[in-house]
Amino acid sequence: MCFKKDPTPQDPISEAAKPYLTGKKPFLNLDFTNYRDREIALYCLKRNTALLQQLDKEQASHVSLLSSWIDKDFSNYIHIYNFKLSTPALLERYLYLKFRATKSYDTDLSLMHSLKGKMMLCYRYTTKKGETISYFDNSLGVPTPLLVTADLRLKMINPDAFITALDYHITILDLPLAFDKIHAVINKSIRDSLLRFIMDNHLTYYQLPQFYSELNAAVADNLNVALKTYGLEVVDLNILDISISNNTQELFEKQYFAISEARRVKEYEYAMEETALNLYEKKAEIHNKFPEFPVTLTEAEKDFALNRYLNRNGIDTSLSAEIRKKHLESPDEVRHEGTLTKGKTTKPPILQPSNFKKVYFIALVIMLLVSISICFGSVAGGLIAIGITALIFGIIAVAKYPAFLKTENQDDNSAYLRQLEDYGREAEDGDDVGGDAE
Length: 438
What we know:
Blueprint: H1 12-22, H2 35-47, H3 60-72, H4 77-82, H5 88-100, E1 109-113, E2 119-126, E3 133-137, E4 142-156, H6 159-166, H7 175-201, H8 212-227, E5 232-243, H9 246-289, H10 299-312, H11 356-377, H12 379-399, H13 401-405, H14 410-437
């Protein structure tokens, strides 16, 4: 039985690797710094991972070969890890390649290398829903939820500490698992640093933008302490914005203007009191020079004293008719609406006597005359007009029956006369008091 030779030419690398795979040549005879020998060695490792046990992680050329093998496929690191050949550099290389392979995890996160080849995590931190940083603004007296946006660059300085802190097995660790935990650490550190900075410096929300530089340094220091356990270091941190929600913004504006208004009112009251005090001091100075004159309040002092009293009691100071007796009333004073006059009462208004019966009968006579005149043109129309007139005035008479029993509005007139007598007696009493005083 004859076999045909395979017409496909053999790959030179695969042909050269056969002696090393079959053991005819020692695997370590290859020069791993030589490009062709390195390719042969990578070909052999792919087909026989048992060759890893001949390598030594203390030799730079062997570690370089293993790094190239991870570059071929980052999952090869699992074999390196199982043969205990892992180094921090190989682990970092594996994490970088595996994280880069994660597609569309977070558009605000990117991976790159530093100038010295260290893995860098570049992250746009934004406060997420449920992570708001809340504090009580002492100046405005309202609870304040803050939303923070910041740019961070984190450098991996200890990959082994990173794996240990995350506490995930190397085979299941991926970018979502790793960075969700890192985000939680960042959020807690920023929140604690921001609240401590606000409280220590007694800041209100509107003062924060003035202290972004100092706040950056405080947050970076606190974050470095928190991330040291994860083998990460803050290379750069820049707080871009600290904001509040729209609803809180409206509340802030209302509260701010209310406080400003109250402060202006207080300043006005202090100014009034200071002016009144100056007037009192001036008057005392005059009295010291001329002690024979009695001490009396000037009109300006009266106005200041009265306005200060009204302001403190929330009463209108315009001294207009808006000041009601319920605002200014005492047992020994009688004040009428719109006045501050003490003692005398005003003359009661003149009560007009009632002319109801006169008006009623005059209107009735006029309507009867009109109805009779209609009869000359149409008897039926006149009778209808007389009937309607009788009906309307009859209803009015029944409704106003008590008014027909009074004679010449005696009740109204008697009441008016009593008011006039009371007014006359009060006027006489006032004259007696004035005479005694003289």
